[in-house]
Amino acid sequence: MIVCVCRRVSDKTIAQCARAGMGFDDIQLELGVATQCGRCEGCARQVVAECAPGQAIAHLQLHTAEQARHAALA
Ligand code: FES
Predict the structure, then answer these.
(1) Could you tell me if the CB of 36 is within 6 A of ligand 1?
(2) What is the structure's pLDDT at 21?
(3) Is 62 in the pocket of ligand 1 (CB under 6 A)?
(4) Which of these, 15, 33, 63, 72, could form a disulfide with 4 (CB 3.0-4.6 Å)?
C-alpha cells in the first residue's frame, strides 16, 4: 500500500529501508516521505518501528483508521 501519497512511497519501500538499518530521518531524506503535507508521518514512523532490525515480527497490515484512509486515497 502507498503510505505517502504525495511522494508515492509504499510501505514495502519504507520497510526495506528500515530493515537495512535506516531510521525515519534517513528514509525521509532519501525518499521524501512526510516532506509535503505530512499526513503520512505517523504511518511511516510506525512501519519503520515495526521493521527496524531487532523487531521480532515485521508486519504490514493496516493498524489505524489513518492508515486505512491513506490506503483508500491511493
Ligand atoms: S502523504 Fe506523505 S507528505 Fe503527503
Answers:
(1) yes
(2) 93
(3) no
(4) 33
